Amino acid sequence: MDEQALAPFDVDASRASIARVYDYLLGGKEHLEVDRRAADAMRNVVPEVGEIAEANRCFLRRGVRYLVRDAGIRQIVDIGSGLPSDGNVNEVAQAIDAGARVVYVDNDPVVLAHARALLAVDEQTAVVTADLRTPESLFEKVEALGLLDLDAPFAVLLSGVVHHLSDDDDPAGIVAAVREKLSPGSHLLLSHFLDDGESRAYALELAFLHGGLGSGRFRTWKELRGYFDGLELVEPGLVYANEWRPDEFTKVESPVHTLYAGGIGRMP
């Protein structure tokens, strides 16, 4: 992908994009030189950083399977959905129940353009332009689509997005505002960079902040547990992401598994 190819999307090609950096780390093709430089700054600190991106995608897919197959969820709001890749949320959910409905939410014009093109023939799935930093407006836009009934149980996915909020953004307050939108029986899936006392977490955080991406906070177990206040954690609780109901595709012995955590909570 080059800068000219991005022109129709009104993209600042001089700045790295979270979605494109993740796409690069996952082996995709939708990235620019500025994104590769940001990703390489992280690799210089933790060569296996791409495995964190893989762990996040794998946790997300396992979580969606649980939500649809075991928890009976048929409505999903995926906030900060990122660029489409194999095993998108709607594909995973609809493979279990063809009637599952998904709304993707993002504020990256490239993500939005790709998602709309991909979903043009899928009446069970839609895309909304919104920012997690304004949750009230975000849910108003989701509700205005008329695709989901937010009075009935639904799931919100915050997969690898909250750690891109700075402390000044008040991530705890933002996630609390998201939880307030959950109707009884609804679920929150959240995955996040983990500060488990490892020096690599601090070094990688600096690489995120100063290597070109400009965002990426590693937070403690206590901080992450706070995001699930008022919810019933689904077994095995908030754990290293690769230890959450691993399947045959999960790298439980990954050298970076202690740098990433995830969990699912249910609103009583």
Write the layout of secondary structure elements.
Elements: H1 3-6, H2 18-25, H3 33-45, H4 49-70, E1 75-79, H5 89-96, E2 101-106, H6 109-118, E3 125-129, H7 135-145, E4 155-159, H8 171-180, E5 187-193, H9 199-210, H10 221-226, E6 232-233, E7 239-240, E8 260-266
Helix pairs in contact: 2-3, 3-9, 4-5
Summarize the structure in words.
By secondary structure, the chain is α/β, with parallel strands linked by helices. The protein has a single domain, classed as Vaccinia Virus protein VP39 (Rossmann fold), CATH 3.40.50.150. 39% of the residues lie in helices and 15% in strands. The protein is built from 10 helices and 8 strands. The protein has helices at 3-6, 18-25, 33-45, 49-70, 89-96, 109-118, 135-145, 171-180, 199-210, 221-226; strands at 75-79, 101-106, 125-129, 155-159, 187-193, 232-233, 239-240, 260-266. Strands 1, 2, 3, 4, 5, 6, 7 and 8 form an 8-stranded mixed beta sheet that branches. Helix 2 (18-25) packs across helix 3 (33-45), helix 3 (33-45) packs antiparallel against helix 9 and helix 4 packs parallel to helix 5 (89-96). The chain is globular, with a radius of gyration of 17 Å. The N and C termini lie far apart (46 Å). Residues 1-8 have low confidence and may be disordered.
Given helix and strand content, the structural type is alpha/beta
Q: In CATH's first tier, which class applies?
A: Alpha Beta
- Rounded to an integer in angstroms, the radius of gyration calculated over CA atoms is 17 Å
Q: Quick one: how many beta strands?
A: 8
CATH topology: Rossmann fold
Count structural domains: 1
Straight-line distance between termini: 46 Å
Number of helices: 10
Low-pLDDT parts are 1-8
Tell me the CATH architecture.
Answer: 3-Layer(aba) Sandwich
Determine the strand fraction and express it as a percent band.
5-15%
Give helix % range.
25-40%
